[in-house]
Amino acid sequence: MNEGWGEYKETIFSVLKSTKKIFDDVLPKAYRDTLKVIEKPFVKLPDIININANSYQFDEEYYQEWDLKGKYNIRIYKGSQLPYLIKYNDILIKNISERFVAFIDSVFYLVESAKDNIFTFLAQVPEFDVYRH
Fold first, then answer.
1. CA distance 81 to 46
2. CB 85 within 8 A of CB 44
3. Per-residue pLDDT tens over the stretch 19-60
4. Among 78, 60, 74, CA closest to 102
5. 3-state DSSP: the chain helix, strand, coil percent, rounded to 5?
6. What is the per-residue pLDDT across 70-99, written as a single tens digit (0 to 9) for each?
7. Residues 6+ apart with CB under 8 A from 19
8. What is the predicted pLDDT for the residue at 82?
9. Residue 9, pLDDT score
10. Separation between Cα atoms, residue 10 and residue 126, nearest integer Å
């Protein structure tokens, strides 16, 4: 198994095997070069479709009146953790949930359970630089 698969190597191996895909460490290097087998690590991407479908605009009164609201677009995700997709060579390997806050496509997403401590959680995101000025 490819070491670049990290903690998902068993899952990636299982999915590739079940979908009958050629993967990089099964064939000897000479065959991989001839067949131009793709050798790459997995990628973890935010499940932006799920996130957008299950998020709403943060609408507390103090936020509505905040002079920096235009710079800090904040949305609340209706879930306990943000969803991500684990993909290998554009094949969906696994759906996972992790993190309470993230900056994705110029939007700050925060899970509902963290809403009462919003600025504590947002301060963990480097792009939320309101305290760094």
1. 11
2. yes
3. 766 555 556 667 666 766 666 778 999 999 999 999 999 999
4. 74
5. 35, 25, 40
6. 889 999 999 999 999 999 888 899 999 999
7. 91
8. 98
9. 75
10. 32
Amino acid, res. 5? W
Taking phi first (over 0 means left), then psi (-120 to 50 degrees means alpha), and beta for anything else, what does residue 97 get? Answer: beta
Q: Which residue has the higher pLDDT, 133 or 117?
A: 117
Taking the C-alpha atoms of residue 79 and residue 55, their distance in angstroms, rounded to an integer, is: 9
Which two three-digit tokens encode residue 77?
């995700």
The two tokens of residue 87 are: 């993909």
CA gap 53, 113 in Å, rounded: 18
> Taking the CB of residue 43, how many other CB atoms lie within 10 A of it?
13
In the structure encoding, which two tokens stand for residue 67, read together?
A: 């002079």
pTM of the entire predicted model: 0.76
7-16: list long-range contacts, CB under 8 Å, 24+ apart.
Answer: 8/42, 8/86, 8/88, 8/93, 8/94, 11/86, 11/93, 11/94, 12/42, 12/86, 12/88, 12/93, 15/88, 15/91, 15/93, 15/94, 16/88, 16/91
CA atoms of 31 and 115, how far apart (whole Å): 53
